[in-house]
UniProtKB/TrEMBL annotation:
PANTHER family with a match to the protein in the record: INTEGRAL MEMBRANE PROTEIN (PTHR37308), POLYPRENYL-PHOSPHATE TRANSPORTER (PTHR37308:SF1)
Family annotation (InterPro entries): VCA0040-like
Keywords: Membrane, Transmembrane, Transmembrane helix
Transmembrane segments: 76-100, 106-124, 136-155, 161-178, 206-229, 268-288
Protein name: Membrane protein
Organism of derivation: Microbacterium paludicola
Length: 306
């Protein structure tokens, strides 16, 4: 494998890993921008199915033939350097973000809220065409569900139960399938964001091992289902996702005390500016994505014409 290509893919992975730490900025969107989205999603599916088949076929005495076929379909030449870059970036970004979030919770939630608000454009746009009454109704149901779920008591930020860690990871990893949806936001909405950052910074191998196991289970169980839904029930899926994201913004209301929403404080103006700053940041990423997609479409058209 050429060294230059490995370094390029590691750099792509570093970009994806950095934004995955920030709630509201989608690693899937950045993967799409840098041109590795389809390769990563396809390879992740093969990898998860390979692990599942190795476990099930091994227990049943069927051998590892099916598992080896799945592993052989993984684009290791891309996945390994991208994965290395992601891990390095996650470690670095976690060390920077964790103390900021702890010291400035109001400002952090305001910035993250702006990121999420702007990210709503992605699933809304992906629905395609004008929204019908059915999509609005589905989105409303999703918004109510998201609001209620984020109103539940959050887990203990110091020692979350390991089954909860695995479950949160299984759902968060599904966000990689849909550009514009942030896995970190899912963790934040269920109260698992700060514990996960702390586990990364403290090198808590038990927590991280359970988290990785949950992510692998999520890839194996949910990603294929989500991909099918995006093909066969696209409008319903994306409308529901839009509503869930909107309702879950309750978790990012800047003024909170122990998870209870408080009225705005005297710092309302600077907080609003941070919300606008977060929205502008995501808007810039989406503009870059649109430019990249337009350029790729023009290349395809010129190639077809030639």
């Amino acid at each position: 494998m050429p060294v230059a290509r490995m370094l390029l893919d590691a750099g792509r992975g570093a970009l994806i890993g950095t934004v995955e730490i920030i709630p509201g900025v989608s690693g899937g969107t950045v993967a799409l921008i840098v041109g590795v989205y389809e390769t990563l999603i396809d390879s992740a599916g093969h990898l998860a199915r390979g692990v599942a088949r190795a476990a099930s076929d091994g227990v049943r005495g069927r051998g590892l033939t099916r598992a080896r076929e799945e592993f052989a379909a993984v684009r290791w030449s891309v996945v390994l350097p991208v994965g290395f870059g992601m891990i390095a970036a996650v470690l670095a970004a976690s060390a920077i973000l964790a103390p900021i979030i702890e010291a400035e919770p109001v400002a952090s939630r305001a910035l993250f809220a702006g990121l999420i608000l702007a990210s709503l454009v992605v699933p809304i746009r992906m629905v395609g065409g004008r929204w019908r009454m059915r999509e609005y109704a589905i989105a409303a149901v999703g918004a109510v569900a998201g609001f209620l779920l984020t109103s539940l008591p959050q887990v203990d930020p110091l020692e979350p139960p390991l089954p909860v860690v695995a479950l949160a990871a299984a759902f968060a990893v599904c966000a990689l399938v849909v550009p514009g949806v942030s896995g970190s936001f899912i963790l934040l909405a269920v109260g698992m964001y700060a514990p996960t950052l702390a586990a990364v910074n403290e090198r808590d191998l038990v927590y991280l091992g359970v988290f990785i196991l949950g992510a692998m289970i999520g890839l194996g169980l949910f990603v294929s289902v989500l991909q099918w839904l995006l093909v066969h029930r696209r409008r319903v899926m994306l409308a529901m996702m839009t509503g869930l994201m909107l309702g879950s913004l309750r978790a990012l209301w800047p003024w909170q005390e122990g998870g209870t929403v408080q009225p705005p404080g005297p710092d309302a103006l600077p907080v609003l500016l941070l919300v606008l700053l977060g929205a502008a940041a995501v808007g810039g990423v989406l503009l870059i994505e649109s430019a990249v997609l337009r350029r790729a479409a023009r290349r395809l058209e010129s190639g077809a014409a030639g």
